[in-house]
């Protein structure tokens, strides 16, 4: 066919064009036949190009979810983004993480602010930072970072926001203990940074933001109770959620904030190594054990005595009793002593909580808790009354008789409960969240606080 355009004659004062189709003679010349072949080639070439274009465009839109402009603007914040944190333990992240019960946690999502390294990873240059008793701040950060079931890189789908600031790794050159005088300013700086570069803190006034305060008196950030209570919790943290080792059953300024009591950090590797040498059901040749600071002549410090003199009474009354294995000096292998003991004394120090509590349970020694009013971690998961003994501070001088009574009555039942694997698992932190471990119970506690989540409130109002 050929197309021929022809101007028509004027009709009814209207102008226009019409196209007349003219059949080519079937015996057209070679030049016209060649022209026909070229037209067919161009036609099929264009059709092929159009088909491929539609295929690639449709594939792109199916596999790429568009991000609203407001989110792309947020991603251009001044905060330095680095996703190489803990890369040595992230080698398995490409595998499906099946360790978290998504049904129980109700698809909980946590966004981790990727702060400049001065707030966290710079402190890891000191190996103690990730291994000492206050290292739950590092352990929780690591576990959340490595658990893609829980972590989200999209802050707009997050239920909670985690600020990884390590405040307990500034070790004193004088006594080796963590110095936390810098904690308030470091945390304040981090909050100013995220509130200036992201909308999420200001949106909720920090109510869905989570911090770790694993020192003696939590977010009061002081080792002495009177000073800690006097300073109180910084105003900028009072609307947030604090994961803290400190907890008591009575009113206290250092827990006057939404909080979750967490266990102190004990390296799970050290527990496993000890249990390989000393099985839970192995021989326990030490009846009652304690190793730690016990002052023979307690010093009056600002009107207070260390351990409220409880440890002094223990030493004075029982240091000569062969049933009690009491030592006042450090020993690198003291976990082996715990694993060989029936009862492990867990008296208060300056604060009511102690890492001995976790070590005793992890190594199968019945903890004897001597700290009036202490609030223990994860009470819905760990039935503390079934696995431990509680002795009032005023009754510590009668400790021997109380332990004799338990040994003669229900010790075997307590040990059976204590040695259950889920009890030990609940108090230990792992590199990735595992069902039933300490970080898993932290997330379970957060799932009970979804009313503080801006995302949850927004969705419920839709």
Automatic annotation (TrEMBL):
Residues 106-404 form the Exostosin GT47 domain. It is a single-pass type II membrane protein. The chain crosses the membrane at residues 43-62. GO terms for molecular function: glycosyltransferase activity. Keywords: Glycosyltransferase, Golgi apparatus, Membrane, Signal-anchor, Transferase, Transmembrane, Transmembrane helix. It holds the Pfam family Exostosin_GT47. It is found in: Golgi apparatus membrane. GO terms for cellular component: Golgi membrane. Its main location: Golgi. GO terms for biological process: glucuronoxylan biosynthetic process. Belongs to the glycosyltransferase 47 family. This is Exostosin GT47 domain-containing protein. It comes from Salix udensis.
